[in-house]
Amino acid sequence: MASDQSPAVLEIRDLRIEAKSSDHWSQIVRGVSLTLRKGEVLGLVGESGAGKSTVGLAALGYLRPGARASGGSVRLMGTELLAIPEEQRRRLRGTKVAYVAQSAQAAFNPVHRLMDQITLVAVDRGGLSRAEAEKRAVALFTALQLPDPQNFGARYPHQVSGGQLQRAMVAMAMICNPALIVFDEPTTALDVTTQVEVLISIRKVIAEFGVAAIYITHDLAVVAQIAHRVAVLRYGEVVEEAPIAAIMDHPEHPYTQSLWAVHEMPANDPETQETPRAPLLSVEGLGARFGTFEVLQDIDLRIGRGETVALVGESGSGKSTLGRVIAGLKAPSAGRALFDGAALPPKLRQRPLELLRRIQIIYQSADTALNPRQTVRAIVGRPLTLYQGLRGVAREKRLIELLRMVELDASHADRLPGQLSGGQKQRVAIARALAAEPELIICDEITSALDKVVQADVLRMMIGLKERLGVSYLFITHDLEVVRAIADRVVVMQHGRIVEQGEKGRVFAPPHEPYTGRLLASVPDMAVGWLDRIIAGRAA
Amino acid sequence: MNRTSHPILSMVVSRVGLGLLSLLIVSLVIFFSVSLLPGSYASAILGQNATPEAVAALETKLGLDRPALWRYLSWLGAAATGELGQSFAGRPVMAVLGPRLLNTITLASITAAIAVPLAITLGVICARFRGRFIDRFLSTSTLASISLPEFFVAYLMMMIFAVKLQWFPSMAGIRNSMDLGEQLYRMVLPILTLLLVILAHMIRNTRAAILSVMSSPYVEMARLKGESEGRVVMRQALPNAIGPIASVVALNLAYLISGVVVIEVVFVYPGVGQAMIDAVRNRDVPVIQACALIFATAYIGFNLLADIVSIVSNPRLLHPR
């Protein structure tokens, strides 16, 4: 790490940024101060809406449309970015300070070849000839461990994988040898097994080229592998800033401590069953396809009464499709399913109302799953009338009961979804599913969009509800911490097939199936040095 | 990447097939809708002279006593070779329409050659300077020009440039005997009118197509790489907006062939539109059918072309994995 005496690459002092919402300006960054020296990596951690990206973009002197700086200063290598005209700021971007976006798939222009996009700034303003720029790009491709570096640039963005594209964007950021790179959640959109590779590449080039970097993420475990120092951001303010080891060992601010909320949940201990659980759902040889593409093949699965089965796997592995097939939203192409001993009709329309009542589904995004124009009363009340035939006072009484169950109260009944927080919205969606008094609830990534503290609360609530109501969960998630906290049994999926299933303790303990092992090994530890061990392990 | 069947090829072939199918359906509608007209075809022609004998004789002569399917197929077969039958006035339909079609195509080509590049340029400028004076001026004036009926624009042009200023003639009746300069001079007002009508639509859609791309993450990325706003629009946004732009251009080009009837009549321009109005007046059914078929072909053809352009401009299809 650089000494404190070296000149600051970036110095942000008391930065205030306002954003326009409807007709008034509100502060989204409230007096943030940060200093970054040569070769230093600063992690910027916080949950969605904390202002991380806004601060990161301000380091490039860039404000998103609808935002304005209302105070403070941003000095990049001594130049006050907020004081110079836009034209001068523009010329610094790409050459002195560069940006790596979250989704490379979206951030590369689909119509131009990678090489053209990567070398553009170097040729335009970096003072390199085309040939020189391309040579440098190939060197970066090599450093970033991209396949076939000589010809990699000739491809179009859609012709390479997500992980490769993310590394190509790192090459694009480094092409002019900038003093500072802002990484904005560069691995969030990637699968965990790909994330490791990209993290290793990013860390390697940062060290090799001695660039200073801001690394924005919501994932403490990731930042612990890459940053020297961490600033924790909440509601546009830095609540804590310290060297990475200090934050990981002794987080001081209560908010920082709350980032461990899910991590610190006790693993639920599946009590050893003397008698095996009565089966509720059993699926045999199930398959499903989109057109000619087989999304699911040979799925055998059993869920017992009162059991929580976690379905894990990377995006595209078919987890959600399996949930949809069981719910009847997608017809299977092969196999059969038994629910409580009776054949489960493949199509939704063939299922009687009573059967629909018994299987409910909850989605990841309550924002899109709740009708924004209906009150909570209408949303939760409808299944009460539809399935239970409740009306009037009886319905209202049950409604209040349900809201209490999901830790809301009667006053929420008259609100619209827009007037609720993210966690409250998800609770309403859960109450809607419970209103049917189902026996099986399919939970599709229901905590992924929530902050850590809220995630932990919702998970605790789900565990409590299961114990009270004896309901079974099919819990679809990519987050192994969630699995650890809630599951009795675990089903691991890859490429539309089940690669392993069994009691949680057995699946999580060695020896592993090769894919399960790789999946488990790819999840970063909440500790400094995890990535070092991986790299060391590979070198050995 | 060396697959034998390129996805673009099969997509283009299937689009062309669909285009031909739509054309076939249109031809069915055109042919059989005539039989929905009141009275028999022959008695309509003969008018007051429609004695039963005369009607029967004419029906035999025109082949109307044959089964409808046979008549349709022979009509279609002839049409496919460019032979559109005899008009009731006794001349071949192509002899009536041929020169008229040429005039319409000339008018359309000149208008298109000016309108398309101008509209795209102005649309790009509007998108680049969104919200500034030039954008607001063009947005307002194009809205006004879309709202005005085309015949009104035509008469307005006539009143200003022919009546008040007396720069151009109000009648655009060109003849083959005139030299090119004279013909062009007479075509100025119809061209100007058509420009005003189609420019507005194309400018607005070009602007909208570009602006919808301007909110993409790759446009923000280009800004964060320090590209200038002009380059962002030209290099990042425009190539991704080609599909929607092509489809609005196609609609307007089709309009130049089939939709100009009113303007041709107002300026007495001897094009297909005029010929169709005359044919309607004279109940010259074969000519009406031929006009309808020509218009439908233009419409389907240009839209097919736009489809193909947007397929080819999609890098995912052009460069498969």
UniProtKB/TrEMBL annotation, chain A:
Gene3D superfamilies: P-loop containing nucleotide triphosphate hydrolases
UniProt domain ABC transporter: residue ranges: 10-260, 281-520
SUPFAM superfamilies linked to this entry: P-loop containing nucleoside triphosphate hydrolases (SSF52540)
GO cellular component labels: plasma membrane
Top-level taxonomic group: Bacteria
Membrane topology, record value: Peripheral membrane protein
Record's keyword terms, sorted: ATP-binding, Cell inner membrane, Cell membrane, Membrane, Nucleotide-binding, Translocase, Transport
InterPro entries: AAA+_ATPase, ABC_Ni/Peptide_Import, ABC_transporter-like_ATP-bd, ABC_transporter-like_CS, Oligopep_ABC_C, P-loop_NTPase
One Pfam family hit: ABC_tran
Places the protein is found: Cell inner membrane
A single GO molecular function term of this UniProt record: ATP binding
GO biological process: peptide transport
PANTHER family: ATPASE AAA-TYPE CORE DOMAIN-CONTAINING PROTEIN (PTHR43297:SF14), OLIGOPEPTIDE TRANSPORT ATP-BINDING PROTEIN APPD (PTHR43297)
Listed NCBIfam families: PRK10419.1
Family note: Belongs to the ABC transporter superfamily.
Protein's name according to its UniProt entry: Peptide/nickel transport system ATP-binding protein
Organism in which the protein naturally occurs: Cereibacter azotoformans
TrEMBL record, chain B:
Main location: membrane
Signal peptide annotation: none
Localization annotation: Cell membrane
InterPro entries for the chain: BPD_transp_1_N, MetI-like, MetI-like_sf
GO biological process: transmembrane transport
PANTHER family: DIPEPTIDE TRANSPORT SYSTEM PERMEASE PROTEIN DPPB-RELATED (PTHR43163), PEPTIDE ABC TRANSPORTER PERMEASE PROTEIN (PTHR43163:SF3)
Bilayer topology: Multi-pass membrane protein
Domain ABC transmembrane type-1: 101-306
A Pfam family: BPD_transp_1_N
TM regions (residue ranges): 12-34, 101-125, 137-163, 183-203, 241-267, 287-312
Keyword match Heme: no
Protein's UniProt name: Peptide/nickel transport system permease protein
Presence of keyword Transport: yes
Keyword annotations from UniProtKB, A to Z: Cell membrane, Membrane, Transmembrane, Transmembrane helix, Transport
Similarity-based family: Belongs to the binding-protein-dependent transport system permease family.
A GO term from the CC aspect: plasma membrane
